[in-house]
Amino acid sequence: MPVAQFRLDEKAWKVYWQDSKGKWHFIYDIEPNEDFERGIRMIIFKPTQLTLKDLNVKPETIKETDAFFSWHVNFFTLYGRKHYVFMNDFSRLSLTVNGIRTNQASKLAGIFKENLEAYFAVEEIPDNLANYYLDKCNEKTITETDSRSVISTMNEIMLVIRSFEGETDKFKDKDTRHKWNNRFIYKPIDYKEPIDVFVKELQARAEMES
To answer: N or C: which end of the chain has fewer CB atoms below 10 A?
Structure first.
């Protein structure tokens, strides 16, 4: 059975749910608070404890976040280089990128946005949709992890990529790596490919707020 999808209209502060036929239904109005309003207007990074230590940064406390604009973060060694893994809470879309060194929390958002923009181009996502999401990346905050499910999926991706490390060099190319990872089917999203889940939600959000 598909998981119910919920969506926030941040202009009117109303919450909707989507039925099995794709029709949206109003549920209730919400009372915005400072933490939640910040959370839907920026990218939220949720590094693991080891990653927070590597970045040398203290997490902020945020009560509520929007899963579509939230990314869990971890790091591992791939092909002899440290790679950071970003996994979207809502869709399980992921990026595995290098270039972030120890104590470089200030570079986290910039490198993430640069790689996400490049990946959007690889997937030929229309500019209006790409810009809608990338505009949210101009501000960021770092908080703690809050989903064992996302962490488990993120660790699975790291394990799978590492398993190919000695057999092929094709995953040295980040475009190839990202396209393959984001077509891997995960149980937490009802056997749908992460890229499809992400793009469908991206289209719906952009249309609702246009």
So the answer is: N
